[in-house]
Structures are given as structure tokens and as C-alpha cells.
Fold this protein.
Amino acid sequence: MGKILLPYLTNARGDLSDIADDIQNAVLDVEEFYGDRLRQPIDVIFTRALHEIAIPEDGIGGRAHSSNFVTIAFTKTSAPSRQLIGEMLCHEVGHAYRWQHEPEWADSFMQKAILEGISICLEAEFAKRSKAKTFFLETMQNRYKDIESCKTLIRNTMDLWGRNCNYNHEACFYTGNHSLPRWAGYSLGYMVVSDALSKSGQNIFDLATWRYSAIEYQFSKMLPR
């Protein structure tokens, strides 16, 4: 059992018995990754009951509800590896980590993108320990390597939503639309936060505690000319 991440498995019918050991080990891996940076314990529910929020290609998904409550969901039959469970858990705990240090509310599209970008960068740092990566993380990193795709994504997201507070969250962050690819908001956030990391020389644990305004100023430097 974790000491700072407190796992609860909804396993009354044995739904998670086949991956229970990998879940417990992933919890320990993520605890080691964050070390003593987490200020309070975090309850983590692992379940197949919320399979609709899982990413089909990875068989796992998650939600961070507050600074001390995270949910990790699996599809009905998936059995992700210890490493992939750890990556997803690291991502969601990343939100809780930020909120424990900086409880600023994300009230615009850009701020929500930055919030997700922080967790993706934490997930990417965690993933360095293994060659295995989630389909989600691979997608983020492959888009970032393609400069022209980056410019197109930035232009399209900003033309549609900019720093608007009344954006289409489903289209921006999940499904995409005729102008945006799937997970566009996540990709934009990853680009902005990665750029801020490069320019600031900070590590991701420190940058994750910055206020949004301290990260947003970097965005103008990324706009296509």
C-alpha cells in the first residue's frame, strides 16, 4: 500500500485481480517519483466501472477531482502494464500536485491547456524510466516534434478559442472537429509548457507551481509569424 497515495480497488467481483499487483507497484513508482513534494495524502480509486473515460488505445484513463482525490479507470478487459498504469496515475496526480501548491482556478481555454500541459510534462518525465509509453503520450510527443503541425495547431486553436472562457471543451480537449485534431487542447498545453521549461531552465516540479500568468507570457513567442 502507498503511504501518500492511498489506493482503493473496486474489486468486489474480482474485476481487477489480474492487475492488482501492477496497480500496487505503479502506486509505489509514482510515490517515488513525486517523493516528498506532495503535501497531503491523495485517495486514488481504481475501477472498471468508469470504463467510458478510459482511452481505448491504452485501456486506461483518469480524472483528477481535487488536490486529494483521483480516479483511474480501466476498460472492461484491459490489462495495462505497471509502467502504463504509472504514467496515467502520474498524469492525474500531477493535477493534484499543482493544486496542493497553487490552487489557482483555470478559467479560460489557455489556462486549462496549460494545466493539462503541466501534467503531460510530468508524465513524460516519469516515462523516461522505461521505453513503454501510452498511446496518448506518444501522440503528444510526436506532434511536438513536427514543427509545421505545431504551428497549424496553434493557429487553429487560437483562431477558434484564443483565451476565451466559453470554449467548446469537448471539441478542444477530446474529440476534435473539422479544424482541430483529437486532444488538441492537450497538445497545445504540452507545447506551451515544454517551451516554458526550455526557456526558463526550470524543472517541471518547480514550473508546475507557477501561476498561469507566469507561463502564459511564453505563449506569444510560439505564435506563427
